[in-house]
From TrEMBL:
Similarity section: Belongs to the peptidase M17 family.
Keyword entries, A-Z: Aminopeptidase, Hydrolase, Manganese, Protease
Taxonomy of the source species: Bacteria, Pseudomonadati, Pseudomonadota, Alphaproteobacteria, Sphingomonadales
PANTHER family (alphabetical): LEUCINE AMINOPEPTIDASE-RELATED, PEPTIDASE B
Stated name of the protein: Leucyl aminopeptidase family protein
Top-level division of the source organism's lineage: Bacteria
Claim: Chaperone is one of the keywords in the record: no
Span of domain Cytosol aminopeptidase: 315-322
Any GO MF annotation of the entry: aminopeptidase activity
SUPFAM superfamilies: Zn-dependent exopeptidases
Amino acid sequence: MTDKHALIQPDRGQQAIAIHVVDKATFPGWLSSLTTAQKAAVAAQKFVGGGYERAIVPDGDGWFAVAGVANAANLSSWCLAKLAETLPAGIYRRVDGQPGKALHGWVTAQYRFDRYRKAPDEAPEGARILLTTDAKAIAPALAEAAAVAKVRDLVNTPAEDMGPEAIEAEVRALAKGHSGGRAGAEVTVTAGDALLKGYPMIHAVGRAAARSHAPRLVEMTWGDPKAPRIAIVGKGVCFDSGGLDIKPSAGMLLMKKDMGGAAHALALAGLVIGAGLKVRLHLLIPAVENAVSGNAFRPGDVLASRAGPTVEVTNTDAEGRLVLADALAKAAEDKPELILDFATLTGAARVALGPDLPGLMARRDETAAGLVEAGLAHDDPVWRLPLHEGYREYLKSDIAEVVNSHSNGFAGASVAGLFLDRFVPEGVDWAHFDTFAWRPVAKPGRPKGGEALGLRAAWHYLRQRYGEDRP
């Protein structure tokens, strides 16, 4: 994020500009309390209390702001985000209440990806700071916003600057501040031809890339070895040309975001470590570039896998599930209590659910329900898709044990989930997020570009299951 200020601060009675919050139901009563001149100012701005509306109202020698929201009694994460995007720099305080969940959107609205910009964009200069008397809410809100910004930064960065080695550097940077002792963070990297012994599918997908973008499996462990073990896995395809089944140019345009699963996994690991969650964390990111060259893997090739099943390659553009399969198999070897994986896996999930909703697949109903509920409670909705047993036949191969991509076009997201399921041992509590990691159209607090979708749902589920929120 460009703005490094603390955008949420404790309310100690300091001078601040007032923010009134109304909805359509409370607007008439609020309006009646204003002076004639103030009513005229509100009317001139066509403010009627609708969601994301805002107005600036004169007040003596100064002014105050009013925000229209859907429900003034139950603020969402995004209801004050429009103010944070458009108000002048300054310090603000909500009148007659606290910001609640709106703290999150207040910070994320001020995100800017400016790595490649020399001139400022059209956003107002300086920070908009929001006060709250709920001091305990500040650190968690800032941590979540920082995690979202991390996902956005990583996904927005082009592949030349966010290749496998850059992802490794991000993991090492996370571990650096938490190393030392049995519970400290440790990083292990298996790269290049070393992948042939143990991770053949990660090697096959990434071997065509330039040496500077050599494939690797990046692992980090953290936490008390005696604590419940969880694994977080993220698809790190730093650029996806489609391989020899090459994508058209329009299909490649956003493929810098194909490492969005890795970005989510890394950000979630950061939240786990930052909060000191009582778990033994295992982060795994298979980082590759699916490139085209003379040694690229081919349609019709049969690949060995870490877990054992042989895989016939029917589509080199279905590469993400191949690298995830080896990483999931490795994750399962330590017998974790829970595995979560994130991946920009299928266009089928986007056709079914659109860009906003990650497809969630889970073996256990209670895990799926917990993730769905956590998402709804924190304005990060996910939608469960089935792992339907009847579709396993779509993965049958004539010459190997499984194909990596079925040919009939039905239930693409679920069939991809079933492929992954084949490489996770029975009995393991496993959930898979098929996320878009991109926002094609800006919304308040959520700019166009890389986006965290499913991150907060997963984080609050983990907090409830393993942290202070645990029942």
